């Protein structure tokens, strides 16, 4: 029986998780898949060093997505993958993080299977796990959190979604794609009963050059994101575990700056 990466088993898709950014966090299986590729259909934030693992002659196709601007719609990506597989190619669909965590990997698997074609999945280190590890932020901890939930901060109908019970004492909430809606997210969680002084961290560009881990209190989340000019990609972590991390306390820093300004005004 041929193995997953048998070069004789042509015409298939390998859905590969590229991890949170740092090429060193690729799995061995992901590297093997890339080296077998005829075509690499990749997200926009993939490190060039990861793409360089594919053969020089492999066809690289970017299907980069940005907020409200998709170069290729999801249906088009599905059709592109299917067309190349039907032509007999080994297609590596390379996705940031893990393909099944807010990566639409499930939709792509459905599309390939509906076309009667072979698809395999290579999991990757998710953004939540990779970025939290870099910041020394344990998403669960025996003394602080026995549950963790992942939500998307950009989903349609954000205000109508029921997040009650996902954050609070003994629970950790990880929010993907929440930078642009940080203020609304804070308001929503407070309205759902989360204490305004609940610790919250923003992990910006985790595992990538220029990464930052900063923290404040939930009531200050939207203001901190604005005054610190936080950019995507970033995840937001809400919960008592944030206090255990290496994230820099920006609320304290801002309070010190405000005090210095007030003292200068009185002088």
3D architecture notes:
This protein is of the alpha/beta class and 267 residues long. The chain contains eight helices and 13 strands. The strands form three sheets. A six-stranded mixed sheet has the order 8-9-12-10-11-13, sandwiched between helices. The protein starts with 11 loop residues before the first strand and ends with a helix.
Helix content: 25-40%
Count every beta strand, where a strand is a DSSP E run of 2 or more residues. Answer: 13
N→C terminal distance: 81 Å
Record the strand order, biggest sheet: 8-9-12-10-11-13
Structural class: alpha/beta
> Biggest β-sheet, characterized?
6 strands, mixed
Strand content: 15-25%
SS element count, helices: 8
Shape, please?
elongated
Low-confidence stretches: none
- The ordered H/E elements are EHEHEEEHEHEHEEHEEHEEH
Rg, Å, rounded: 21 Å
Mean pLDDT: 90
Please specify the SSE layout and strand pairing:
Blueprint: E1 12-17, H1 28-35, E2 39-42, H2 48-51, E3 59-62, E4 65-66, E5 69-70, H3 74-86, E6 90-95, H4 105-114, E7 118-122, H5 127-134, E8 145-152, E9 170-176, H6 182-191, E10 199-204, E11 212-217, H7 221-227, E12 234-238, E13 248-249, H8 250-266
